[in-house]
Amino acid sequence: MTLKLMSLPYAHDALEPAMSAETLKTHHGKHHAKYVNTVNELIKGTKYEDMALDELVRSSHDDGDRKLFNNAAQVWNHDLFWHSMTSVFADPPKALADAIGASFGSMSAFIDQFVAKGEAHFGSGWVWLLANGTKLAIEDTHDADNPLVHGKTPILVCDVWEHAYYLDTKNDRKAFLTSFINKLVNWEHAATLFAGAGPQNLNAAA
């Protein structure tokens, strides 16, 4: 199976002014595309060639193939990141909103904790909203690390590698995270994953 760079679910300028078209074109068309191309080069003629993306992420991790894992996980992580945003922002559906309230005390408390977790993250990585039944948790991972390989279920993610925000907010990661959580999050998609109806293999579903 040859991985394909997923098509964005919105136009390059659809997330402005929270995320610029220039950032989206560079991030998706260069950074994400490079990971896809590298994975395809690495899996050609190997046992990984016919694996679905989520299986490839888990298998390369279990096998200790760091180069393949890093690139495959970055493809998966970016796929979820694009699906985690929308050009038509709306509040979370009731079931997810209730879970957020139960897990964090309130929506505003969740926002504060999510932004703080991302701002405090040292170096490159990701900030995730994870589901365990009806319980939610915020965690950060470094570099390409992916919750799937730790038996966890991600429903939302924000990229905190510098290329995700530097063209727009320079070194102000907090400003980027604040815009992401307040203006860009696709809560409908997160709610679908929370309900257990979303595919784990986001690349194939895109």
Q: What's the CATH architecture name of the largest domain? A: 3-Layer(bab) Sandwich
Helix proportion of residues, in percent? 40-55%
Strand order of the largest sheet: 2-1-3
Element string (H = helix, E = strand)? HHHHHEEEHHHH
- Major β-sheet annotation: 3 strands, antiparallel
CATH homology group of the largest domain? Iron/manganese superoxide dismutase, C-terminal domain
Q: What percentage of amino acids are in beta strands?
A: 5-15%
The residue-averaged pLDDT reads 94
Shape assignment = globular
The top level CATH class name of the largest domain: Alpha Beta
**Could you tell me the number of beta strands?**
3
Category by helix and strand content = mainly alpha
User: Which fold does the CATH topology of the largest domain refer to?
Assistant: minor pseudopilin epsh fold
Number of domains: 2
Helix count, per DSSP?
A: 9
Gyration radius, in Å: 16 Å
Give the N-terminus to C-terminus distance in angstroms. Answer: 15 Å
Stretches where pLDDT is under 50 for at least 5 consecutive residues are: 197-206
Structure description:
Residues 197-206 have low confidence and may be disordered. The chain has helices at residues 21-43, 53-62, 66-83, 94-104, 107-120, 166-169, 173-184, 187-194, 202-205; strands at 125-132, 135-142, 153-159. With 206 residues, the chain is mainly alpha-helical. Strands 2-1-3 form a three-stranded antiparallel β-sheet. It is built from nine helices and three strands. The chain is globular. The chain folds into two domains: 21-83, Fe,Mn superoxide dismutase (SOD) domain (Helix Hairpins, Orthogonal Bundle); 94-200, Iron/manganese superoxide dismutase, C-terminal domain (minor pseudopilin epsh fold, 3-Layer(bab) Sandwich), CATH 3.55.40.20. Helices cover 50% and strands 11% of the residues.
